Amino acid sequence: MLTETLSAARDMGRLNEIAVVLIRHGFGDTVRRLGLADRLERAGHVLRWDHVADLARITPPAQVRLAMEELGPAFVKLGQILAGRADLFGPEWIAEFEKLHSHVPAVPLELLRPQLREDLGGEPEDVFARFDTVPLAAASIAQVHRAQLKDGTEVVVKIRRPGITEVIEADLRLLARLAALAEAEVPALKPYHLQQLVREFVKSLRRELDLAAECRHAERITANMAPLPWIVIPRVHWAHTGERVNVQDFVGGIPGDQLGQLTPEAGFDRTLLAQRGAQAVLKMIVEDGFFHADPHPGNVFYLPGNGIAFIDFGMVGRLSERRREELLQLLLGLVERQAQAVAEVLLDWAGDGHGINLAQLETEIEAFVDQYHSTPLAELSLSLMLADVTALLREHHLGLPSDLALLIKAFISLEGMGRGLDPGFHMATEATPMLHEVLRTRYEPKALAGRAWKTLRRSLSVIEQLPHDVSRLLRNARRGRLQVHIELAHLKRVGDQIDRAANRLAMALVISALIIGSSIAMTVKGGPTLFGLPLLGSLGFISAVLGGLWLVRAIWRSSRERDTDEAG
Questions:
Q1: 54-90 burial by CB neighbour count: b if 16+ within 10 A, else e?
Q2: Following CA atoms 279, 280, 285, 289 in sequence, which dihedral angle do they give, to the nearest 10 degrees?
Q3: Largest alpha-carbon pair distance within the chain?
């Protein structure tokens, strides 16, 4: 695995940078345990190990956050996603991940011109009636400039940074390899499912690199929000939009982090805004199954007439119909204090593996829900209840599916924004009527008939294919080509151990042959010499020594891994 990790020479320089940053922020032991230090130093890269002790006063979460900020956009984005994984990390880690921001200067317009000229079909000053050279905002992946179309429409132009794709792709390759290394070399990290986290992150970040995909997400949510006229999504101007640039209407409202401007004198009703924002996000999640996964104050604007605008749909969440049913059952169980309903959903999400005590987990879930039994609905904090649920799962080393982790993050952000607008805002109070309405709609005769018809069609399709499948099975059996695949984890492990033992035995035989052959070669006079000794015999002994060292190291590593597994 390590050889494969370091085989790509194109990533060696970046790997050295990552190792240096990790060491500088106090993770030298991790670099050593992953085996990166020896390989990099043998490849000619010098790693500085000094001043590591200076970081002793910094907490590990803060050290990780500082390292991610220094490592660049891919790692910053990873940390921002991990900020929503309260099921995997404790509050002190989440608090540090939420501080992650990309502190990057804007790219000068002259460096953007070649890319803009290619994407827009001309100079920005010619395509737009006005194009501001100073950006409104700059982030690690893209920066935003304000402009005006020829028809007078005020727009924002979002431009992907030149060369950022190549940098991020290199980091994604290394992240995938480092995650595999970490799970293999550090058993304590296995409960965090690092490889699965990285795979989900890779898909998310690649979608975010496509600025046209962000616009497709915006248009889909625009269609879904049609029944709520007070919700505004910026219009996309597709004539100027592509993978590296997009153009959307400019939103001129009050930013979500400037609540002091939302006064009655200015015509704003903060209680109404909180209710409308909750209705919009609940509709995205519960009804549509397609939602803004990062509704923090920077992505929300408040408009005259108590309207709300959402921007930046680079990160979205998706929920299947089945997942929405499970979510509906969970939320209703929480707000109505139905312990058994909550326990059933969480146990389904947890699965049957992991070596957990399901009876104990179910008892703890029921005790958790029961503590809210006498609490009035208006006093329930849905975000705190969801945070407690994820903490409970974390204690049992259980991770939520990625779509649900995003959803819980959205719920927590939403309730925080609602409380900021209106201290008397209660998500449970707002959610309960909609949850009951969705539940009632799902069990209307028309909806039941539709689901029954879908099930019948799938069943008929299976029945229709059954004769063909049986015929093919019998034909393969007559030809002796019938195969039965049974995968048993323990047998596979035994097979791997036998394979390694056979390899070592073969190496031992080769070493023995080298020693015997070299001894014979030493007695032959004449021919080339090395330090006065026959060359072939000397090379044979050197090869035998190297092979013996490899064999001793392999046996020692195998013994250490076995001891680690037994201790775990």
A1: ebeeeeebbbbbbbbbbbbbbbbbbbbbbbbbbbbbe
A2: 130
A3: 107
Q: How confident is the model at residue 446 (pLDDT cuts 50, 70, 90)?
A: confident
What tens digit of pLDDT does each residue of 307-338 get?
A: 999 998 888 888 887 888 887 787 777 777 77
- Secondary structure (DSSP) of 494-558: HHHHHHHHHHHHHHHHHHHHHHHHHHHHHT--SS-EETTEEHHHHHHHHHHHHHHHHHHHHHHHH
Question: Can you name the residues that pair with 158 across neighbouring β-strands?
Answer: 144, 246
User: Of 14, 22, 17, 315, which Cα lies nearest the Cα of 167?
Assistant: 14
Beta strands (DSSP E) in 17-169 are 130-131, 137-138, 142-148, 154-160
The answer to whether the Cα torsion of 324, 327, 333, 335 is positive or negative is: negative
What amino acid is encoded at 275 in this protein?
Q
What is the Cα–Cα distance from 177 to 34, expressed in whole angstroms?
11
**3-state class of 57 per DSSP?**
coil
Rg from Cα positions in the chain: 30
Share above pLDDT 90 across residues of the chain, in percent, rounded to a whole number: 18
CA angle 423, 424, 430 (to 5 degrees): 120
In 3D space, the residue among 381, 383, 347 whose CA is nearest the CA of residue 364 turns out to be 347
67, amino acid identity: A
- State the burial class of residue 200 (Cβ atoms within 10 Å of its Cβ: 0-12, 13-18, 19+): middle
Residue of 482 and 40 predicted with greater confidence: 482
Looking at the DSSP bridge assignments, the partners of residue 232 are: 309
DSSP state of 287: I
65: left (phi over 0), alpha (psi -120 to 50) or beta: alpha
Provide the token pair at 172.
């994604």
Cα gap 505→463, rounded to integer Å: 54
Say which amino acid occupies 315: M
Measure the CA–CA gap between 186 and 1, rounded to whole angstroms: 14
Answer yes or no: is pLDDT of 132 > 80. yes
User: Using CA atoms, how far apart are residues 87 and 389, in angstroms rounded to an integer?
Assistant: 8
- Any bridge partners for residue 290, and if so which? 318
| Cβ proximity of 243 and 249 under 8 Å | no
- Half-sphere CA count of 478, side-chain side, radius 13 A: 6
Residue 332, token pair as written in the block: 């209703």
CA distances from 284 to 357, 374, 409 (A): 35, 30, 14
Ramachandran assignment for 62, one of left (phi > 0), alpha (psi -120 to 50 degrees), beta (any other): alpha
- In the DSSP assignment, the letter for residue 348 is H
- Residues 371 and 386: their CA atoms lie apart, in Å, by 14
